[in-house]
Amino acid sequence: MDIIKGRVWIFQDNVDTDQILPGYAMAEPFNELGKYAMKGSEKVDFAKRVRVGDIIVAGKNFGCGSSREQAPVALKEAGVGSVIAASFARIFRRNAINIGMPVLEVDLREHFNEGDTISVDIAKGLIFKDNTTFYAAPLSKNALATLEAGGLIERVRKELGVEKRW
Amino acid sequence: MNIIEKHLAKAADLEKVSVGEDIRCKVRLVVAHDVTGPMAVEQFAKIKIEEVFDPQRVVMVIDHIYPASTVQARNMHWILKDFTKRYGTILYEHGQGVVHQIISENHAQNYGDIIIGADSHTCTAGGYGVIGIGVGSTEVAAAMATGTIDLEVPEVVEVNLTGSFKPFVTAKDLVLTLIGRFGTDGLTDKAILFTGPGVRGLSKDERMTVSNMGIEMGAMISFFADEDKDEGVAQTVAIELSEIIPVVACPYSPANIKPVQEVAGTEVTQVVAGSCTNGRLSDMKAIAEVLRGKHIHPDVNMIVIPASARVYEEMEKHDYCKVIRDAGAVLLNPGCGPCFGAHQGLAADRDVVVSTTNRNFPGRMGSREAKIYLASPVTAAKAAVHGRFVDPREPSGGGEN
Ligand code: SF4
């Protein structure tokens, strides 16, 4: 997997799925969801200002609330390269990985300012800022395999050998 | 190994599993509903295969927005109907009930089987000894293709129950008390295992109420064991059931727990009774017993939703439907009702709702300003009668006049 490089956006604890993608936007087609990313949060204009590769750095329990998979899809569509949080709600974390959006667990809010440029080596769980390296909890073998395949659907296609037949 | 690890090991065809290990388990049943199912269908189409792993093990339930409140909602039904026809899978529609109740009634599983569902409350199945795990739509799509799921073996927190409830104290009060104690993320990625002599005194309905809200603590699995004690658990918490008192979850978190006593007198404008948490026959009975021969307060809307058509039928056999209607409450078709704020009884800014459901986040039932209190059926029904919270243990039922 490539190294992700982008600007930091800081969020605090318990950013729930309603903040990430408000319920009213659920029915929008996938490729439109990016416009609503973080619209329910205190950073209402996030979707307008985010650039491809930008990285969300958040507190604990990121993605709590409903199991709506449209929430990580909205972040991905908006261009978010990765989310690094102190902890994630389980279903959000899995949903993100399943759609091919890397997430790492470590609390880095104290170390970065909004707008800092950082880079992330997902496979190794390393985060770099200037000359400092930070360490995230390693991703599970399954999560890595899924991310490497580009998401769970791609991984299943590979494992079932569908590629060859189609 | 504890009992949950034993079941996971069996499903993964392994002799032994340990905490944190990545395993691939066979699933018994793959489930989705009209809100999460359409995305699973869309993702499944991308895999480009002709068949699901076993059509008799894929179940879709139209329960969240039935009858449809918008054209878009009806389109979602059609996506599931078309998929069912094409792949020969199982569909429940026409208001047969809430997914978790339907599964418990019609797909009685073997002890320790694994069900995955694109709904966070799939953990309800732990109430009857089935490992229910909530996942997203893409994971359901993958499981429909492969019949398996990849998991990390969770750390297990044991809750050892002794004794039995005092009158007017219920399984809902127990689980709310636990959520207050662990917090909304206290058990993230973990499994809760209920053991102890206290378990035997709890009915299947009660156990399902408790398991249902495991996800409100972040848990992946919320499982009732028949054992008195288990081995290889990370932590054991002891709960004496006679010490549990009636509680409510105050706005705006299921972990914001207070004794009903403390909120007594707070005025209430809407009462919602039903859902996958508390929509079963014993819940409907508790409500009917409170409402029998009474009328709800003139300032209160009361909405009652049986969790399934079977529950509804049983309510008719008894006189619960008549009692509930005579009291001035509205009986809705089985399904999710207003639980997640899609239809059938939304709350406005000024509403104070007492609900037997499982979530009270801002905006869960309509306006972000509306206040939702989560409570047991008996606490909720008494609030409907009085137009305000009363402690259900008070001998007069809270001072009726
Ligand atoms: S009743 Fe409520 S919590 Fe249960 S499945 Fe329906 S919407 Fe979800």
| Quaternary structure of the protein | heterodimer
Strands side by side in the biggest sheet of chain B: 4-3-2-5-6
User: What's the end-to-end separation of chain A, in Å?
Assistant: 25 Å
What's the structural domain tally of chain A?
A: 1
CATH superfamily of the largest domain in chain B: Aconitase, domain 3
Number of helices of chain B: 14
The separation of the N and C termini of chain B measures 57 Å
**What small molecules accompany the polymer chains?**
iron/sulfur cluster
Class computed from helices, strands and strand pairing of chain A:
alpha/beta
Gyration radius of chain A, rounded: 15 Å
Report the portion of residues of chain A in β strands: 15-25%
Let me know the CATH homologous superfamily of chain A. Answer: Aconitase, domain 4
> How do the strands of the widest beta sheet of chain A line up side by side?
4-3-2-1-5-6-7
Main pleated-sheet profile of chain B: 5 strands, parallel
- Alpha-beta classification of chain B: alpha/beta
Range of strand content of chain B: 15-25%
- What top-tier CATH class of chain A fits best? Alpha Beta
> What share of the residues of chain A lie within helices?
25-40%
Order of helices and strands of chain A: EHHEHEHEEEEHHH
